[in-house]
From TrEMBL:
Transmembrane segment boundaries: 19-40, 65-86, 131-151, 171-189, 201-222, 234-258
Organism: Algimonas ampicilliniresistens
Name this protein carries in UniProt: Yip1 domain-containing protein
Keywords recorded for this protein, A-Z: Membrane, Transmembrane, Transmembrane helix
Cytoplasm listed as a keyword: no
Source species, domain of life: Bacteria
Length: 259
């Protein structure tokens, strides 16, 4: 291909592909720094809550972190890929009738079963070429984040007038994205560790990891709201502590609806 062809219409298409692939690569690299900051220092992400680095101190500097929307989407995609790869390597599991009634009645089993159904449906529709239909499958996860954002907006609005709906949605997307990516890594590590750790210990560690990331959302919410609104007092801390409770309550509701 000649140089003048690269500058023509076909070249524009090539450039768009290059930009797309480069952008995706940069995002996949940036997601891990964003994830680490959401765990260690969530306040660093507060300027990005509304989808852009809105803080004056970020002007003229490249964005180091992903916005909440991109972080949420990539976390979900990484989770789906991890589950798919593990499924390819998995030994055929027991049929539901072979699982004890106690296990089937547990909340963790129902959450896992609901997620497994969503992933299987997503995989089947992607493989059949129904891309838009596959995208619809993950809509419940986004609806979950919006429901959390609504609760967050109402609660924080009582004492922090500067906390807008945009901030609430951004915080919820960061919250849910963190949980999704954390649980994807937990499942991957648990699968590897299952070869040398007893099942009861592994189940306990997995449950602890789940409770840890759920509790982390309270810290994230507090740091986001305190940084955005300058309302860092005990009332904000109390309301932020409602976030994990709201997430657990919404999980119960969505599991009932999906299972």
């Amino acid at each position: 291909m000649e140089a003048d062809e690269l500058e023509s219409g076909s070249g524009d298409s090539i450039n768009r592909v290059d930009l797309l692939l480069i952008g995706l690569g940069v995002a996949l690299i940036g997601i891990w720094g964003t994830f680490a900051s959401l765990i260690a220092s969530p306040s660093k992400l507060s300027p990005y809550l509304i989808g852009r680095a809105a803080d004056a101190k970020n002007e003229g500097k490249p964005n180091r972190y992903l916005g909440p929307g991109l972080f949420f989407v990539l976390s979900l995609l990484i989770f789906i890929v991890v589950m798919y790869l593990l499924k390819l390597q998995a030994v055929p599991s027991a049929e539901p009738r072979d699982v004890s009634e106690i296990v089937q009645s547990s909340a963790s089993y129902k959450v896992g079963y609901a997620l497994a159904q969503l992933i299987d449906m997503f995989e089947q529709r992607v493989m059949s070429g129904n891309i838009w239909s596959a995208i619809v499958i993950v809509v419940p996860v986004y609806a979950f984040a919006i429901a959390l954002a609504l609760i967050n907006r109402v609660l924080m609005g009582w004492i922090a007038p500067g906390w807008t709906a945009a901030h609430a949605v951004g915080a919820a997307l960061y919250n849910i994205g963190t949980i999704i990516l954390w649980m994807g890594m937990t499942v991957l590590i648990s699968t590897i560790a299952s070869s040398f750790l007893p099942t009861p210990i592994l189940a306990g560690l997995t449950g602890l990891a789940f409770l840890t990331v759920i509790g982390l959302t309270a810290v994230q919410t507090y740091q986001f709201a305190a940084d955005v609104t300058d309302e860092a007092d005990y009332r904000l801390g109390i309301l932020s502590a409602v976030t994990p409770v709201a997430i657990l309550g919404l999980i119960v509701v969505f599991v009932i609806l999906l299972v």
